[in-house]
Amino acid sequence: MGEVYITKTANFLPNDVVSNDEMEEYLGLINGKKSKSRLLVLRNNKIKQRYYALTKDGKTTHTNAEMAALAIRNLFDNKTEGLQSIDLIACGTSTPDQMMPSHAVMVHGHLPESNAIEVVSPSGVCCSGMHALKYAYNAVKVGDKKNAVTTGSERLAKILRSEQYEEEISKLSELEANPHLAFEKDFLRWMLSDGAAAFLLQDKPSSDGISLKIDWVDGASYANNQPACMYMASDKNEDGSLRSYLDFTPEEVFDKSVMSIKQDVKLLSENIVKLGFDRLVEIFKDRGETVDNVDHFLPHLSSFFFEDKIESILIDNGMPIPKEKWFTNLAYTGNVGAGSIYLMVDELFNSGKLKKGERILLVVPESSRFSYMYAMLTVC
Predict the structure, then answer these.
(1) Are 141 and 2 in contact (CB under 8 A)?
(2) DSSP 261-274
(3) Chain-centre distance of CA 322, in angstroms?
(4) At what angle do helices 179-186 and 38-45 cross, to 10 degrees?
(5) Closest CA to 339 of 68, 120, 118, 102
(6) Residue 199 shares a structural domain with residue 161
(7) In angstroms, how far is CA 46 from the centroid of its own chain?
(8) DSSP 182-211
(9) Which of 175, 192, 213 finishes a domain?
(10) In 3-state terms, what secondary structure has residue 88?
(11) Which residue of 151, 152, 227, 361 sits 20 to 30 Å from the alpha carbon of 340, by its own alpha carbon?
(12) What is the overall mean pLDDT for the chain?
């Protein structure tokens, strides 16, 4: 089998930067009141700014598919010749603009200059962008395609708007008496943001500048023994199972904010770090890897709250990675879900800091039902 290289990266971030103080101007007040949990969540996640694909009055400026397509156009400087060279498009996201047609074909629809090609839409949450990468990596590696484009993108701000929560929260009198419940309803509104990034994968390294050879891509799901932690278009039953939006009446879907994103914060804190980084020990052992050979560590962090926890478990597992090797742009790009790891690689790739021979470790956790993806890249 041949080798596979990321030869170019690009991004698209919508509109102007949104600061912490401006967030509620875009996302709205719930029942005319400022959030009681916003400052607490922001103090823990340490995100300073992000991007939203909407205006302050809630009007959409870009769809998810449009942002992903614009990132792809930026890969080729919007040149028709480049778009026509694509053999495969694989797009991962948590938030497609619609359930049908699939996200990736909608992205393809925004690229009319391209040809009739294979298009794939991995379903999932943060790991979906990495699943897209692995599909494209395998296709190029076995010689089925000469080049492929993969994307990770999200359009989350619209889902976080106050109107998604107002009706339910106004009916829950116990919120004032139960701040923990209020926090779980409000938590994700201050965590997530919009954007897209794209990779070009080819069977040869670039003749102009650096490339990233994909050494391997691996993953694991713990859904066999873990309940759902983050969910949307469903609600959690008392036994931990999920009830689909299909099993609610239209009135219940609205009243219970079934279409909003919810997260079990306690379950998240108990599992997200331990499961993923214990698995990393096994992967490194199986592949004969050592952290001594890692020059850049790119963990997808939903919040800086988890940074020290990751550092501690790496030390406990006998694979410490010095902080000077860590790289994240969470503070100034925001948590873009499936797009975050793409945006980190894109920034590092174009920073001018990478040297040939250096190795880059990617780790992407997904809290929805505890899945993880990992990859190792070598600068060449």
Answers:
(1) yes
(2) -EE-HHHHHHHHHH
(3) 24
(4) 60
(5) 68
(6) yes
(7) 17
(8) HHHHHGGGGTB--EEEEEEEESS--SSS--
(9) 213
(10) strand
(11) 227
(12) 93
363 has which bridge partners? 299, 374
Q: What is the CATH number of the domain that holds 244?
A: 3.40.47.10
**pTM, full prediction:** 0.95
Rounded distance between C-alpha atoms, residue 203 and residue 4, angstroms:
5
pLDDT, tens digit (0-9, with 9 covering 90-100), for 247-294? 999 999 988 888 888 888 889 999 999 999 999 999 999 999 999 999
The residues with which 234 forms a beta bridge, in sequence order, are 244
Residue in the structure block whose two tokens are 């309803």 = 185
For residue 187, give the amino acid letter. F
Domain hosting 168: range is: 5-213
- The answer to whether the beta carbons of residues 260 and 169 sit under 8 Å apart is no
Tokens of residue 23, six digits? 């967030």
If one counts the domains in the chain, the total is 2
How far is Cα 86 from Cα 146, in angstroms, rounded to an integer?
9
Instruction: Verify that 157 and 234 share a domain, yes or no.
Output: no
Q: Are residues 162 and 219 in the same domain?
A: no
